[in-house]
Description:
Blueprint: H1 11-22, E1 29-33, H2 40-52, H3 65-71, E2 78-80, H4 91-99, E3 112-116, H5 124-135, E4 141-147, H6 155-158, E5 162-165, H7 171-181, H8 186-196, H9 200-208, H10 210-225, H11 231-243, H12 248-268, H13 280-289, H14 292-310, H15 315-328
Parallel strand pairs: 1-4, 1-5, 2-3, 3-4
Helix pairs in contact: 1-2, 4-5, 7-8, 8-9, 10-12, 11-15, 12-13, 12-14, 14-15
Amino acid sequence: MPGFEEIVGHKEIIRHLQNAIRLGKVSHAYIFSGETGCGKKLLATAFAMTLQCEQRGVDPCLTCSSCKKAMSKNHPDIINITHEKPNSIGIEDIRSQLIDDVAIKPYCSSYKIYIISEAEKLTLQAQNALLKTIEEPPAYAVILLLTNNMDALLPTITSRCVKLGLRPVKESMVKEYLMEKLHIPDYQAKMDASLAQGNIGKAKQLAQSEDFAQVAENALRLLRRSGDMELYELVDAIKMLSADKQNIYDYLDLFTMWFRDVLLFKATREVDGLVFKDQFNDIKERAGKSSYEGLETIIDAIEKARTRLHANVNFDLVMELLFLTIKEN
């Protein structure tokens, strides 16, 4: 469990939190918002650990008894709100774990910190009950709401919280993290970082997923043959994708990235910017066969396929149209 120093990106938010600690101006309620996997929980945990750390610095020391308790997830004054129902956090959850509990002073620290993950799942009743505590909290209470959808929270709650929106992390930083911390090879780290679009959690998941490695291998094999596929091969490709439907959006992402590489190489004749450097010969060959217009038509067709699948259009039909467009252009 890292301190602020170990967190990739989000430097402005970290600076804001550390300044609040340094100046003794910690708010009673914060909202960390951003998509799933972007690092909300890491930031909230590092903030909670720092507030409780016995060294009173702007980064947790990771060695005092408070930090050790937090790292082993049994700090009595850092409370992670849990919920029985998977899709909602009800008034009983909030009442028993926060509202009734907040009246009791901290056991061993300066603060009592409540972390509510998936705060968008708070029911209306739970939010209204929580509002009273946010309006009149005890001096030692800090409530951290983590959400991927701030619009699901009542305006009366959001207006009383410090709002911290997490932006995507630079692709180069994500790639560096994958290579240094997870020892992922260069070309794979670049592919995972590009696909993750600045989401470090997603990048990590892709890098460690055997499923995704197989998807990438299948996708690249299809793309190598896509220009001169016979009809029977087209049917086989659609069958293969149909059997792996749950990963279809990963396939489409990979197709888009590959054809963007082809377009980039056609325009610049340079290898440096390519995501799929290891596919250079196939990319070069495709760039020689397709026109700029043709490549843009293909990239457009991949997006259309994605939209049609979201709208539940027949899977085989969507794929057939896509591969015919790839073949013709």
